[in-house]
Design goal:
The complex is a heterotetramer, with 2 copies of chain A and 2 copies of chain B. Chain A contains 4 helices and 16 strands. Chain A is of the alpha/beta class. In chain A, α4 (190-200) links the parallel β12 and β13 (206-209). The model of chain A has no long low-confidence stretch (mean pLDDT 92). By secondary structure, chain B is α/β, with parallel strands linked by helices. Classes of the chains: A alpha/beta, B alpha/beta. Bound molecules: flavin-adenine dinucleotide (2 copies), flavin mononucleotide (FMN) (2 copies) and FE2/S2 (inorganic) cluster (2 copies). Residues 43, 54, 58-61, 73-75, 77-81, 118, 121, 211-214, 235, 240 of chain A line the site of one flavin-adenine dinucleotide (FAD). Chains B, C: Its EC number is 1.3.-.-.
């Protein structure tokens, strides 16, 4: 049996950029039972509050796992992430997971990773776990974060910022040539994902981590479905990683 | 010794806690977290005769103390349910309710005919889903529409028949009385409240269907009132639903008159919340020296208890 | 330049934010915290012909995202209101609504006659208080009962007549249409939902009357849906009420079709919440380049906007 | 104009007994305007959370004021006080007040103060502000707190505990003789207050601080009323301190 919500103890919760926090959680309890803490692309449902407002837990991807410490990288968007950002070392936080399918780490060939904004989170862990040759393309609005760590792990790192403050000025999709890769992993805002898929169509397979509003996070409520060639699929259980050939975008 | 058993329409539940339709799938996902045999029962995802894809666009939207949903009865259809889900569910040593929706009386009746031939324990007739035209809510608003469908289904149905009421009914007590007259063996209430949300930046409704269904602890005080009013008015077993998040909520519904309760949105907060509720009820009974749930069922209004 | 003014039944409000009846007294307590002239309007505590002591026992009980109340229309009576409260309220440079309840049609009519002779700006006819027999909710459930009282009051009433609807109405759209037919110049909705709570240790209802009224952000999705449905159906100005806690909520109600909004329980969280909402609406209008509220009123359903 | 909710900055939040916390808040902002922070018997509405669950703020009495620091003494009863108990130095908390009438400090004569449990909170501040001769009777269930501070301020201190672990074993009302006082101030559980009033009837006037569930806290919603000889009176505005001759108890 999997364990449902467990308490994580906050090791650190650091602002690393405007609105972006890095959260390190110590997991003792359930790892004692030798359960897997998760692979790249998997996520946890986080609750940093006991009350019923906010009501639902928040899905956040695994950005790293080292020993018993899970790292999350999150952007403060609304009230849930706001509350989490206020937690300090020693505070506890409830979490359910690991959830979802994760990226397929066994695929062969040269990999291009494309991230937009906070979509970088699962791709950081991915870049650590892949044995393939990897080029990493990361786009930011203005401030750049976490690239120093990624740089050491990959063949080449490309940075773009919308305001041109660092790297290429513009979108990250303007930087990369799909012909150079055997597969692409991507995560970021929907318009970016769509653009990556468009650029890669008929050239190279794309695997994208999708977002959706979630309730249960475990595949039971059918609240997070997206349209795919196989019918309505659950982002939380059948995803969040989908092949671009499966996903049917509404427009 | 305490005893948490309840007998509803001849079916014995080991405890009064049932997982609510649409929040628990067919149990498979939760079975990864706890043995489903702990539950009093499970109500299946709402089923229609033919498979349904459900609604497009956003399906879940959080509100204060709850959520709006517009799933639109995505389900594999009755036949697929009977061949691929029901056997799994029946193996779990818990009572299984088939939650049945539909667009027309014929559709409902055909679904029931097929379920008659299975080992399903009970039918929960959903005349209250606000999210699809075919969800049956049209039948759940006016008593006379409900009378028509329930009495037709009753003629066919060989299983204990629970009718699930909509809180959007014009008059919940009259609706309950009508369904009982039409042949319901029991009633469950409430389904979700019709609600909505607007995205003020795109200046349009959040949901493609505009209206969605509200559930969660936000609705509890209203749901409890409805269960209280209905319990007083009719003599069949009542299953209380709406915002139950802990054993205290469950006990409130039982004291209002419910025989059993269902937990819906609470499962999203914690997949093992039903276990906490079952345990909490037991502890409460021990501490309060309550031997059986009958002792407190409807205690706030029943005379001579 | 943005313009937050709204004209409701010939009465101009400087902005669409009105303090809701029963949560704002007669304004005196809030006047210690901000100049009431900032408000679009104030609706008085519910008034009855004769003074009322209100209900006994617990009057307030918190629920998830809101509260149940059973105040029971405690008020000084119409005459005392006219001589001691109205002069103060009218001095505040804001629109004053007299919220009028009652037990019988005669009582309502007599109250209105006395208010006719004052400088009150509008009447808000409360046919929806769930907490007293004389609160008028009996009139607010079935459309035909509402027709009777509204048409009688209309004959007497010389002031713009807003009818405040109960969300417990059997059919809110039909109720709205009926009240308009009977002579309402405008509608406000919603009042509180009938709800309840049980003290599981004393095994009895929390409230002496068993049933109390639910308000707060918990009810917002349902209230918004009702305002949307009613706005589409009738042509008179609508005042939206129910769980409004910030400018975003207010804008949602306006986009659903409301001309103005009322803030009730929100005042308990912060006595100057109405100021934040007024400011928030202004900032939103500036940022979104909205010149007048008419531009967005009912924008989610109105054609040719 | 009074200021509505203001932020208080937590100076300390210390557990001083089983379930009892002492909270010290630093008030800078609005005291600059020279507003009074409150007299004994007055209270504040506290919100230690931004979300809407819990929905209502919680009334807590002033236990002390020194410079710009307000002290509250509170018992963790339910979710509101539980959340407040989790706050730490540097956290902020919203508060509205001072509210209510407070005790009348101008009455002359020998004073008996009678407290039960956490009802001691407003009476601590009262014992500091009274110029009269004071005897202080405090009853506790088991653990005794704050008596060292009170002892220095009063003529005589009497302690009772229900379990007899300190002072008189039993109820505090068994300890005192109403004939020795010109007035009595009391706060505590309702049964105790009723008992004090009964003992003092026709002997000495009693002023009691009453509790009631509150919503607005400022006198507008009529949610907190109690029955008095003057009709239904608001605990938050007309009280919380009432003369025992006014209050009409239901049973
Ligand atoms: C599988 C998955 C993995 C994710 N991993 C990360 C991560 O590693 N780091 C990170 O910062 N974020 C991640 N997200 C997004 C994150 O879940 C949302 O930002 C978060 O739930 C917002 O919560 P909130 O309370 O702060 O905002 P809310 O107040 O709930 O909403 C703020 C805004 O966020 C939008 N939003 C809310 N929920 C979602 C959602 N589930 N998906 C998309 N938009 C939403 C709303 O439209 C709203 O505009 C992930 C989402 C999914 C589905
Ligand atoms: C004027 C006034 C001054 C007060 N001063 C203090 C103080 O200095 N220190 C202190 O510890 N407490 C004080 N209280 C009581 C305090 O307000 C309640 O204990 C607190 O609101 C409980 O909140 P909660 O969220 O922890 O509990 P909840 O979860 O709201 O309730 C827990 C229990 O407390 C009871 N309760 C809730 N609210 C009230 C209320 N307003 N009055 C009485 N019972 C209630 C409920 O019946 C329930 O059993 C005061 C109350 C009033 C009215
Ligand atoms: C996501 C979701 C899906 C639901 N689907 C169904 C359904 O298929 N059939 C049904 O009868 N009720 C359905 N419901 C209603 C629940 O069974 C329950 O009646 C309602 O949510 C109120 O209970 P709660 O407050 O505990 O969630 C659904 C509710 C949710 C939240
Ligand atoms: C304590 C309290 C007292 C109320 N008294 C009245 C009243 O006297 N007359 C009336 O029409 N509505 C009364 N209401 C209803 C409010 O005016 C409003 O319609 C309702 O609370 C919903 O709005 P909200 O969610 O913003 O509070 C009262 C509400 C509360 C909470
Ligand atoms: S969130 Fe429930 S199925 Fe994905
Ligand atoms: S709490 Fe509103 S009047 Fe006292």
């Amino acid at each position: 049996m999997k364990r449902a919500y467990n308490k994580g103890i906050i090791h650190s919760n650091t602002k690393i950029s405007h609105n972006i926090f890095e959260l390190k959680l110590e997991i003792d309890l359930w790892n004692r039972f030798g359960e897997d803490l998760g692979i790249p692309g998997q996520f946890y449902m986080l609750r940093g509050w006991e009350a019923k407002d906010p009501f639902l837990p928040r899905p956040i991807s695994i950005a790293n796992i080292e020993d018993n410490i899970i790292t999350f990288l999150y952007e403060v968007r609304g009230k849930g992430t706001h509350i989490i950002s206020k937690l300090v070392k020693g505070d506890t936080l409830e979490l359910l997971g690991p959830l979802g399918n994760g990226f397929d780490l066994k695929l062969k060939g040269k990999v291009g990773i494309v991230s937009g904004g906070i979509g970088i989170a699962p791709l950081i862990y991915l870049s650590k776990k892949l044995d393939n040759n990897v080029d990493f393309y990361c786009g930011f609005r203005d401030e750049v974060y976490y690239t120093d760590i990624i740089e050491k792990r990959v063949d080449r790192l490309f940075i773009s910022t919308e305001d041109g403050s660092q790297g290429h000025k513009g979108f990250v999709t303007e930087l990369f040539d799909p012909h150079r890769y055997d597969l692409i992993f991507t995560c970021g805002p929907l318009p970016m994902i769509k653009n990556v898929i468009k650029i890669c169509r008929d050239i190279v397979p794309v695997y994208c981590s999708m977002e959706s509003r979630m309730a249960c996070g475990i595949g039971a409520c059918l609240g997070c479905t997206i349209k795919t060639t196989k019918g309505m699929e659950r982002v939380c259980k059948d995803g969040p990683v989908f092949s671009s050939r499966e996903v049917i975008f509404s427009d | 010794m305490i005893n948490t058993k309840v007998n509803i329409c001849g079916v014995e539940l080991k405890n009064p806690v049932i997982a609510a339709s649409g929040t628990f799938g067919f149990g498979r996902e939760y079975a990864e977290y706890f043995p489903l045999s702990k539950l009093g029962g499970i109500s299946s995802k709402g089923l229609t005769l033919n498979r349904k894809e459900g609604n497009k666009g956003i399906r879940i939207y959080e509100t204060t103390g709850g959520l709006l949903n517009s799933i639109g009865l995505q389900n594999p259809g009755i036949d697929e349910f009977i061949s691929n889900q029901l056997p799994f569910m029946k193996k779990q040593d818990t009572i299984v309710l088939a939650n049945v929706g539909g667009g027309t009386i014929e559709e409902y009746v055909t679904s029931i005919e097929r379920l008659n031939k299975t080992n399903i324990d009970m039918i929960e007739l959903n005349i209250s889903c606000p999210n699809v035209k075919e969800g049956g809510m049209a039948f759940g608003i006016r008593s006379k529409d409900a009378y028509e469908i329930v009495s037709e289904v009753r003629k066919t149905c060989k299983k204990p028949l629970i009718v699930k009421l909509s809180p959007n009914a014009e008059n919940i007590v009259h609706m309950a009385e009508t369904c009982v007259k039409a042949g319901a063996d029991g009633l469950s209430l409430v389904n979700t409240f019709s609600g909505m949300a607007i995205d003020i930046y795109s200046k349009s409704p959040v949901f493609e269907n505009t209206i969605a269904g509200l559930s969660g602890p936000c609705i509890k005080p209203i749901a409890l009132r409805m269960v209280y009013e209905v319990s007083k008015a009719v003599d069949v077993p009542i299953i209380g639903i709406g915002g139950i998040m802990d054993y205290k909520d469950a006990i409130e519904f039982i004291m209002a008159g419910a025989w059993a309760i269902q937990v819906g949105s609470g499962n999203f907060i914690n997949p093992t919340i039903t276990l906490d509720i079952i345990e909490g009820i037991e502890t409460f009974m021990v501490n309060q020296r309550i031997k059986s749930l009958e002792e407190i069922r409807g205690i706030i209004w029943r005379e001579n208890i």
